[in-house]
Amino acid sequence: MSIEHTVYQEPFNGLDAIWLKFGTYEAALIPEYGGNLVAFRDTERGYRFLREPDENAMNDFTANPSVYGIPFLFPPNRYEDGNFPWKETVYELPINEQATHNHLHGFLHNVPWKVVACGTTDVESYVLISQKVDEQHPMHQYLPFKFTVYLRYRLDGTGLHQQCSIVNEGTEAMPNLFAFHTAINAPFAAGSTPDDYRIKVTIGERIELNERSLPTGRLLPLSEEEQAMKTEGVNPYFAAMDNHYTAVPQNGRNYMELTDLRTGVKLVYDVGTSYKHWMIWNNGANRSFICPEPQMNRVNAPNLSNIAPEEAGLIQLLPGERFEQSASLYCIYPD
């Protein structure tokens, strides 16, 4: 029996979107607002894995696309007073978080992306989008590097798969700092409650943040609940979290697992070992969604002179080089 698989264009609550279908899975991507993949669903079981903007939240989505779906942040998180030292130059990023006087989340999560290709094969439904940064791009006045980011999403019988590629098209080394502010529903199954959920993340140590949400230079021991989050799992709303951690892969994998105890379904977010840090944010223990955010670099990395660049995740991409990292969202269903 053939598996239904298709790609089509249809509005998502009024915004132009690319829809992917493969078997029981479907996904929706909105190119105009950060190339954000805002929906990933199991239509047979009625599961909605990502925090989607419903029809009443579209104004909030267009104003704040970083708290829905899988937004791409470049450079990610906060930079003290907007300062971004790189090589022999200190670049000045705009202050867009007035409360902390920091720059927050970069430039690519709220701009239009180009749809390069989309289609199907016997084994997948896919879409490829790109963001080209050059002298004409609004980001270039702040970080004058030339590069292109490619995001390829595909659905197959196992779930959702993402390939991120960054190509340095300039003549000098560029910072390769990015993250995904992935917002996952907990609960994702109708009929389950927040208390039915347990989250596990491959964290290492907690990075202390000050009142401006910037690293102090100290690493903290994990609390009892955080230790459980690293091992057997804990309720995702045990406390309000806006926490920063080192990433420590387990058995060669860097991942989050979210288990629904009522149904026995486990959602796995396998992000790859290039990400050396996690941010975990649950919006004040909102009991609705949680963001396990794989992040290449430590918050404020260019300004952290007291730790080694490799530890800070302050890595470079040389002219002509291409960086790639893959991630997957998939379910383990009970027998």
Characterization of the model:
By secondary structure, the protein is mainly β. The chain has three helices and 27 strands.
Terminal CA distance: 22 Å
**What is the count of DSSP helices, taking H or I runs of 4+ residues?**
3
What sort of overall outline do the alpha carbons produce when their principal axes are compared? globular
Mean pLDDT over the residues? 97
Radius of gyration: 19 Å
Protein name: Aldose 1-epimerase
In brief, what are we looking at here?
5% of the residues lie in helices and 43% in strands.
Helix/strand layout:
Blueprint: E1 5-9, E2 18-22, E3 25-30, E4 36-42, E5 47-48, H1 58-63, E6 72-73, E7 78-80, E8 83-86, E9 89-92, E10 102-104, E11 114-120, E12 125-133, E13 147-156, E14 159-168, E15 174-175, E16 179-180, E17 184-185, E18 197-201, E19 203-209, E20 215-220, H2 224-230, E21 242-247, E22 255-260, E23 266-270, E24 277-281, E25 289-295, H3 309-312, E26 316-317, E27 322-332
Antiparallel strand pairs: 1-2, 2-3, 3-4, 4-5, 6-16, 7-10, 8-9, 11-12, 12-13, 13-14, 14-27, 15-26, 17-25, 18-22, 19-20, 19-21, 21-24, 22-23, 23-27, 24-25
Organism: Paenibacillus enshidis
Protein name: Aldose 1-epimerase
InterPro entries: Aldose_1/G6P_1-epimerase (IPR008183), Gal_mutarotase_sf_dom (IPR011013), GH-type_carb-bd (IPR014718)
Main features:
single chain, 335 residues, mainly beta, eight-stranded antiparallel β-sheet, six-stranded antiparallel β-sheet, 3 helices, 27 strands
